[in-house]
Write a structure and sequence with these properties.
This protein is mainly α. Helix content is about 85%, strand content about 0%.
């Protein structure tokens, strides 16, 4: 129990130290989502279903591309799949979805 409390305390300190960089990263992800959504507006209609498809695809494509970059580098070096790649994909998706909901 004490070990967990100490771990949470250390993690809290780390979060406070990297908060400006993390906020910038989230800001860039949301901006990338907006840019991709505008580009997809050329393909999909402005109706309700078109907006849903456009935002859903943007929400899918960005975490996929961001997680594929380190996975591709890992594959080039090790010639095997990056461990926990799907976990990173879900973490990025949750971060982007949360940032979009908070904006």
């Amino acid at each position: 129990m004490l070990k967990q409390i100490l771990l949470v305390f250390v993690a809290s300190i780390l979060v406070i130290l990297v908060m400006p960089q993390f906020a910038r990263f989230l800001h860039e992800l949301v901006g990338l989502h907006g840019m991709l959504s505008q580009d997809l507006a050329l393909i999909f209609s402005g109706e309700f279903l078109g907006k849903i498809l456009r935002h859903s695809l943007a929400l899918l494509i960005i975490p996929l591309l961001v997680s594929l970059i380190p996975a591709g580098i890992y594959w080039l070096i090790k010639r095997r799949e990056m461990p926990y790649w799907a976990h990173w994909l879900w973490i990025l998706w949750l971060l982007l979805a949360t940032a979009l909901a908070a904006r």
